[in-house]
Design brief:
This protein is mostly beta strands. It is built from no helices and five strands. Helices cover about 0% and strands about 35% of the residues. It has a five-stranded antiparallel beta sheet, with no helix packed on it. The protein is globular. The relative contact order is 0.35.
Length: about 70
């Protein structure tokens, strides 16, 4: 389970493969639901990569929290 502000590393990313290997921060205040197909919103990846939607299996916590 992830929380808003958690730093995560991308293991995979269907939405934008350029994010793989980079880190970003979870934006969602509540667990995702059917509107987003149960995908988390991750931001602050890069100035060239907009926020992306990812499934939980595509990301891993780094241990840092904002």
């Amino acid at each position: 389970m992830f929380n808003a502000g958690d730093e995560v590393r991308f293991l995979a990313c269907e939405d934008d493969p350029r994010a793989i290997g980079k880190t970003g921060r979870i934006l969602d205040e509540v667990p995702p639901g059917p509107l987003t197909d149960y995908r988390w919103t991750v931001d602050q990846i890069s100035i060239f990569i907009a926020p992306v939607l990812v499934h939980a299996h595509e990301i891993q916590k780094t241990g840092r929290t904002r």
